[in-house]
Amino acid sequence: MYSINLKKPQVIISTGLTSYKNIYSHEEVLKDRKNALESYLKSYGGYFVLPSIICCSKTGLIIDGHHRYHTLVGLNVDLIPVTWIAYNDETIRTHNSKEKMLSKREILNVINTKKMLKPKSTLHEIQTIEDDWKPLILISSLFEINL
Q1: Model confidence pLDDT, tens digit, residues 86-145
Q2: Domain extents for the chain?
Q3: Is the dihedral of CA 38, 43, 47, 53 positive or negative?
Q4: pLDDT tens-digit series, residues 63-95
């Protein structure tokens, strides 16, 4: 269940846990944000709830959640909560500004080139049944994490 009504609910393939080795970043992270998130999560004493990382179901590329992913890996979490999506679907866009929008091909090509994009270079959104565009994180599922 999600807080928005998706134009195409079938864009969400599945949700579950996967090895951190099965998913890949396309953006660098801001160290201060990653460190702040790590400190915040550690303050809970080993148990916390976190939204899933959103990944392309075909490639394993992280679409949303780079800071969460790198923080979890830094905390030695082996199984990462993931929502797998059909990334190439037209109801997902890479940015809300046409001037800043990258093609999905450019983003997916990071897997081949290993050349990371700058932090926050994408701002993925998903289309609702009302034809509004909302932040992609709204399709994340909450997961319990025990360190």
Answers
A1: 999 999 999 888 888 889 999 999 888 888 899 988 999 999 999 999 999 999 999 999
A2: 9-146
A3: negative
A4: 999 999 999 999 999 999 999 999 999 999 998
> Among 3.40.50.360, 3.90.1530.10, 3.30.565.10, 3.40.50.1970, what is the CATH number of 9-146?
3.90.1530.10
Per DSSP, the three-state class of 81 is: strand
Beta-bridged to residue 23, according to DSSP, are none
Q: Order of strands across the sheet with 92-93?
A: 92-93, 125-127, 133-135
Give the pairing of strands 125-127 and 133-135. Answer: antiparallel
Neighbours of 14 (CB within 10 A): 9
What pTM was estimated for this model as a whole? 0.94
Residue appearing with tokens 């290993």:
114
Asked if 82 contacts 18 with a C-beta cutoff of 8 angstroms, the reply is yes
